[in-house]
Design brief:
Layout lengths: L4 H14 L10 E4 L8 H14 L3 E6 L9 H6 L7 E6 L5 H10 L10
Parallel strand pairs: 1-2, 2-3
Helix pairs in contact: 1-2
Length: 116
C-alpha cells in the first residue's frame, strides 16, 4: 500500500537542507488518487502542517473517477486542516485540471516574499 507520509518527510528534509524559506518561495503540490494506508493519515496531517509553516502554499489535488465517488480517507483527514495556506481540490475530469491550478494560485495565504 501507499504510505504518503514518506514523501512529505522527504520534502521537509529537502526544504531544510537546500531551500531556506527565508530565501525561497516554496509551493509544494501533491496530486493523488487518495489511496493511503489508513494508519498513516494522521501522520500526513501533522507533516502537512509542518510543511505549511515553511511554504507559501501547500496544494493537494485528489484525482477521482467520476463526480460521485466518495472522498478518500486522506481527503477526509485533510478536511481538519484549516490554515488558509492549505488548498485542497478534487479533480474528476481532465477539464478540471486548469481550474484546479488556478484555485491553488488564487489563494495566497500569508505568503511572505523571499528575502523577508
Amino acid at each position: 500500500g501507499t504510505q504518503v507520509s514518506s514523501a512529505y518527510e522527504l520534502a521537509l528534509q529537502i526544504i531544510k537542507e537546500r531551500f531556506n524559506p527565508n530565501d525561497w518561495n516554496i509551493y509544494p503540490f501533491h496530486f493523488s488518487d487518495g489511496d493511503n494506508l489508513p494508519w498513516d493519515n494522521d501522520r500526513c496531517v501533522q507533516l502537512v502542517q509542518q510543511l505549511i509553516e515553511l511554504c507559501n502554499i501547500f496544494g493537494y489535488g485528489e484525482i477521482r473517477e467520476g463526480h460521485y465517488r466518495s472522498p478518500s480517507t486522506l481527503m477526509s483527514a485533510y478536511s481538519r486542516i484549516t490554515d488558509k495556506k492549505f488548498v485542497a481540490v478534487t479533480i474528476s475530469d481532465k477539464k478540471e485540471v486548469y481550474p484546479a491550478l488556478r484555485k491553488f494560485f488564487a489563494r495566497r495565504g500569508d505568503a511572505v516574499p523571499a528575502g523577508r
